[in-house]
Write a structure and sequence with these properties.
Layout (H helix, E strand, L loop, with lengths): L12 E2 L2 E4 L5 E4 L4 E9 L6 E8 L3 H4 L7 E3 L1 E3 L10 E2 L8 E13 L2 E9 L1 H6 L4 E5 L3 H10 L10 E3 L8 E6 L1 H11 L10 E6 L2 E6 H5 E2 L3 E2 L5 E2 L9 H8 L5 E6 L3 H7 L3 E8 L5 E7 H4 L46 E6 L20 H15 L1 E8 L9 E4 L22 E13 L2 E10 L35 E2 L2 E4 L1
Parallel strand pairs: 12-15, 18-24, 20-22
Antiparallel strand pairs: 1-7, 2-3, 2-6, 4-5, 4-25, 5-10, 6-9, 7-8, 9-10, 11-13, 14-15, 16-17, 19-23, 20-21, 23-26, 24-25, 25-26, 27-28
Helix pairs in contact: 3-4
Length: about 500
């Protein structure tokens, strides 16, 4: 019977865990034989993957035998949680088992003992490897996504599917592609019905598949902030009495690492702040140019720290001035977002090819020009802005794509309620869970989360956008050979005369 009470932070319920062979033979496992169990979620990955580190004294590999595509079944939950949405369900009866696809790192430890890693994944990922989609879809890109996921000719998935309606209504042709490649193509071209951004993510969590825009992960219906699923803190455990610790420590992180704060050089080159899209139409041989400016567009999109129904509660990731070489006549107020040539995107178009104005790639005229630049910028903001990795007690209900409130510790001492444990008032706030790793060892359930945010909680100090530094002195240019002294070399005696 599962334990209904949470005894300690990191406690878990794990129903029977088994491997079911191709002949339906059941091989029961237990923690101890399984040294470590991992499940990986990622908003940039189409399907779930996982692994088990096995300590084998029974020669399971040969006696079973394991040859790939066996099923792994289990149910994992945090004690005290209720409802199916709180459970990681990979059971044969009510859930969707994982499928083994590889065994690696096999090591002989003694005459009777060996270790190895078993790798498993969602059934849909296995099916994707042997399936092709070749047909036309109409009725909207989200309708095409539903059909590719559900149809027997596609992924044939029965899992829960969370999708965001698109405003793309035109026909799209999938030319003999693997189903997941087709879903990624739809993601690149999809435009949200309720948000101003561009591009979708297609990914799987332990609760099902998701086809949604970046902004939908941050906002409900593009109008209000999605609630955070939990609050993450970093406080010494000695601050609390014994009866307080269990519940409080469930939200108290063990450690954190700031993986990336900002990289302005890369962000400029990749088009986060500014870009130019050149669209070339193969039908009429014409081209169009559309420029994107991050600061001009900023208020049109939902962001991590947006609260309420306005866009005034969050602030751009940069407001820094550019260097003084921009003090050219008429350009004194330019910032990093005012240089579209920093990143140029070439985009083909087939508008009017079949008589109708179908836009780029048969989706929508809106998907031409600046929309592609917006998609590129938003992806870069997710991948290259503030990113923090935290290790904390496991919560079976947390998944990639969720919002969490993270109180990022400040290094400034003697501030706040507990001296030395104040919070960074600029970078604390709402974060998107980009990656989630569920990790079980014999006695403990941990989560390793990668959190991202595209804003700062409080604004940077506002200053002039033109660089205010001291003017440099031009040191000139010199031909290096003009500085060499006149010399000659005797070839018979190669010493300098």
């Amino acid at each position: 019977m599962p334990n209904p009470h949470l005894d300690f932070a990191g406690d878990y319920n794990l129903d029977k865990i088994e491997i079911i062979t191709a002949t339906n033979e059941v091989l029961p496992l237990r923690m101890g034989v399984i040294m470590e169990l991992n499940i990986y979620e990622d908003i940039e990955k189409n399907a779930l993957t996982g692994s088990m580190a096995i300590l084998d004294a029974n020669n399971i590999i040969s006696n079973t035998p394991l040859q790939g595509n066996e099923r792994v079944v289990f149910r994992l939950s945090t004690p005290g949680t209720e409802g199916n949405e709180q459970i990681i369900d990979a059971s044969e009866e009510t859930g969707y088992p994982f499928h083994i696809y590889a065994i690696t790192d096999r090591k002989i430890l003694s005459e009777t003992l060996m270790s190895y890693n078993i790798h498993f994944c969602s059934r849909e990922l296995m099916r994707n490897a042997r399936t092709r989609v070749s047909r036309a879809y109409d009725g909207g890109l989200h309708q095409a996504a539903i059909k590719i996921l559900r149809d027997e000719t596609g992924l044939d998935s029965k899992k829960q599917f969370y999708y965001e309606p698109t405003r793309n209504k035109d026909k799209i042709v999938i030319p003999n592609m693997r189903p997941l490649s087709a879903m990624n193509l739809l993601s690149e071209k999809a435009l949200s019905k309720n948000a101003n951004g561009a591009g979708y993510y297609f990914y799987e969590t332990t609760k099902g598949f998701h086809f949604r825009s970046y902004e939908s992960m941050l906002a409900g219906q593009g109008k209000f902030a999605r609630p955070s699923v939990t609050v993450l803190r970093y406080q010494p455990k000695t601050f609390f009495s014994a009866h307080e610790r269990t519940n409080y420590n469930m939200h108290n992180i063990d450690s954190y690492e700031i993986m990336q704060h900002f990289d302005t050089l890369s962000q400029q080159m990749m088009g986060t702040y500014a870009s130019r899209v050149i669209t070339y139409n193969f039908y009429d041989k014409a081209y169009q140019i559309a420029d994107y400016n991050y600061h001009d567009e900023y208020a049109q999109h939902f962001h991590a720290d947006t609260l309420g129904s306005t866009y005034k509660s969050n602030f751009p990731i940069t407001n820094a001035p550019v260097d003084k070489e921009q003090k050219i006549k008429g350009t004194e107020d330019r910032g990093v977002s005012d240089y579209p040539h920093s990143h140029v995107i070439l985009q083909p178009s087939t508008r009017y090819l079949h008589g109708d104005d179908t836009g780029s790639f048969g989706t929508s005229t809106e998907n031409e020009g600046k929309t592609e630049a917006i998609r590129n910028s938003q992806e870069n903001q997710v991948n290259n802005s503030t990113r923090v990795k935290v290790v904390m007690p496991g919560h079976s209900y947390v998944q990639a794509g969720d919002i969490v409130e993270f109180q990022l510790p400040s290094l400034e001492r003697n501030k706040g309620e507990k001296a030395g444990y104040a919070y960074d008032d600029k970078h604390s706030g709402r974060y998107l869970v980009a990656k989630c790793r569920h990790r079980l060892i014999k006695q403990e359930y941990k989560m390793i989360l990668e959190l991202v945010k595209d804003t700062v909680y409080n604004p940077h100090e506002k200053g002039p956008r033109n660089y205010q530094g001291k003017e440099e002195t031009n040191r000139g240019s010199t031909d290096i050979y003009s500085q060499d002294k006149s010399t000659s070399i005797n070839p018979d005696n190669p010493t300098r005369l």
